[in-house]
Design goal:
2 domains, 68% helix, disordered C terminus, 265 residues, mainly alpha
Length: 265
């Protein structure tokens, strides 16, 4: 069981309501294809400043609860940068507030809620709940902690239950592929995974003597034309994957091709 209890001062019922409301906003944002980029404007900047102040207050108010959760994750996150957890949370929270604002701004009465401290507190608490639960789920699934932090940051897009659903739906798919799909295709990770699995099956037949990890990398990194990439690999004409496509060493390792130097082939 993944621990997700609420701070005693906040109350589990109130937190549950906040989480449900926040997840409803995520669904609307997905359906409406809400943009999270571009300039923010004075009103949104002011709301973001307020959210930082409220977050600081919540940290003091729930210090014991936060320390407890940090202790739970300490061994799992041991190999990450000391400030990574804090920076990742803050980055994802800012995007969460932007998403909330732009999803609600069609109705003045609703968007004005974000100027209410209690409403912002609910948004922050709901994001914290999903962020922590995402990390605990990644730990349970054996996901690399650096990748897990990136996935947790995306809690403004993906509910932890969605991630759990992906792992259950694709039990034979490498967890690294699933987390990559969640990170880089958060609106429709299922479509990416389905296409990946079909391509791996097809490419394995076409290139029977090629390392399965290289085939997996081709299917994930070059979905439009994996055949061309594999032909280059076999001809010794390709660059290292991380230079050419931008995959991290962690992702390569999770695809089981970290020990293959394609540049030297």
């Amino acid at each position: 069981m993944i621990e997700t209890e609420a701070p005693a001062q906040y109350g589990f019922k109130k937190l549950g309501e906040a989480v449900r409301a926040r997840r409803s906003i995520k669904d609307v944002a997905h359906e409406s294809d809400i943009s999270l980029g571009g300039s923010r404007g004075k009103k949104l900047d002011a709301i973001l400043d307020t959210s930082e102040q409220i977050l600081s207050s919540l940290r003091s108010e729930h210090a014991d609860w936060i320390d407890q959760k940090r202790a739970m994750l300490s061994s799992y996150l041991l190999g990450t940068e000391p400030e990574a957890l804090e920076e990742t949370f803050s980055s994802g929270l800012a995007t969460t507030v932007v998403q909330e604002f732009r999803t609600l701004r069609g109705t003045r009465e609703k968007v004005n809620k974000l100027e209410e401290p209690d409403y912002l507190k609910d948004v922050i608490s709901a994001y914290a709940f999903d962020f922590f639960r995402s990390l605990r789920l990644s730990e349970k699934m054996g996901i690399n902690p650096n990748t897990a932090l990136d996935v947790a940051r995306l809690s403004y897009h993906l509910n932890p239950n969605k991630m759990l659903g992906l792992f259950k739906k694709y039990p034979d798919t490498n967890p690294g592929v699933i987390t990559h799909a969640a990170m880089h295709n958060p609106k429709n990770p299922d479509a990416f995974i389905d296409n990946f699995n079909l391509e791996v099956e097809r490419l394995t037949v076409k290139y029977p003597d090629t390392n399965p990890g290289v085939i997996a990398h081709a299917a994930m990194g070059y979905p439009k034309n994996p055949d061309a990439f594999l032909d280059k690999v076999l001809a010794g004409e390709t660059e290292t994957p991380e230079d050419e496509f931008g995959l991290t060493p962690t992702e390569l390792e999770e695809l089981e091709i970290g020990d293959i130097n394609l540049k030297d082939n």
